[in-house]
Amino acid sequence: MTDPRIAIEVRRVTKRFGRRLVLDEIDLEVAAGESIVLTGSNGAGKTTLLRAMAALIRPNSGDILWFGEKTSGQHESRRLIGMVAHENRLYPHLTLRENLVFAARMCDVVHPQHCADSLLETVGLLAHGDRTPPVLSKGMRQRLSLARALIHDPPILLLDEPFEGLDADAEQWLSGLLQDLRQQGRTLCFVLHDEAKTRLLADRVLHLHQGRLLQVAGQAAVAHVA
Amino acid sequence: MVSKDLLSECRSLRVWPAMLLLGVVVAMMFAMQADLPPQQLRQIVGGLLWLTIFFAGTLALDRSFAAEREDGCWEGLLSYPVSPTCVYLAKLTVNVVALAALECVLIPLFAILTDLPLLAHPGPIIIVAILGNLGIAAVGTLLSAVASTGKQSSYLLPLLVLPMVIPLVLGAAEATRLAVEHDFGPSWWRWVELLGAFAIIFVTASIALFEFAVEE
Prior knowledge:
The complex is a heterodimer of chains A (about 230) and B (about 220). Chain A has helices spanning about 45-55, 95-105, 110-120, 140-150, 170-185, 195-200, 220-225; strands spanning about 5-15, 20-30, 35-40, 60-65, 70, 80-85, 155-160, 185-190, 205-210, 210-215.
């Protein structure tokens, strides 16, 4: 049986790259509207788990479900997911506006131009809409990546170290925006290393160690980390 | 996706100038070295033309997925709610356009350099060019996706593509030779049918295999 109140369900997922076991029978449920943070040392499998949750890699065994629907082979259901990855995934020869319009068209957004301008305004880049990504700062590119992930208004947002490389102002701005998204009821999954950000953004903290989910900490435990 | 790729290429000029330059240089070298009487030149001009198209075109084929990966956009492309078939067909269209541009330069250039009537009957030559182009682009697009997963894609792609398209290059070369000799009889049609069959098989098989080719 599936439960539509569960936004993401990971069922006994195992992933190997060659002979290396990266995810070892991971079981995880993320409720709709919940915000979870994945922590762990480098190579623990956090990014791989996030990419598996985004259906960007196929597990060797196990299933991933979004709102009760299996992800494998379901290209249409990718509308449910937005992802901010390590790399910006922006086309360097298209302007910021063109990057967003392209993403909007790929997601069948009804008014791509209007949607792109609206999101550029939301992330504070409307004045830079005709510039290209390489001339922007890391923080501005990260803002645009977030806008790209939000272009189709997905209920689930996956973010892989979204604060990496940002200065203090950009971090503060992004924290505010992510808290807003959390309050809007979106399901958020982060990979984070920063404890303060984890406290701020997590309902639950999951610790990965060598591909295994070792510790599941609730709100109380998050507060305890504080 | 097609307009995005063409717009990116127009602005960056990363591939087409190099492809066209290589094609022109190879064509000029072939023409200068092949100092043969017209009758013998007619026998080999099709092969020289299609080898030049293949080798120069490989540059465009190679970049179709490598550029996405270098810019970190490949996973972004896969994360959109579109089927891999759509991604493949878009990339195939861009490669067909690139090879068509190359052919638009090389066929007249070969006609000028060899002084052979390559364009005396443009219709048959255009049919051969379209079918040959489609076959090479179909295989090249699929194998470019496979090769781009490795770090040596530029070296790997010609090695992967050439064995697959040898029958197609031979067919296109023979059909071109017969067109130069104004022989549009049954043998010309047999080569054209072969090219058409290869194009259909390669496009169909590539669509079926693309999802597995790009999977990690």
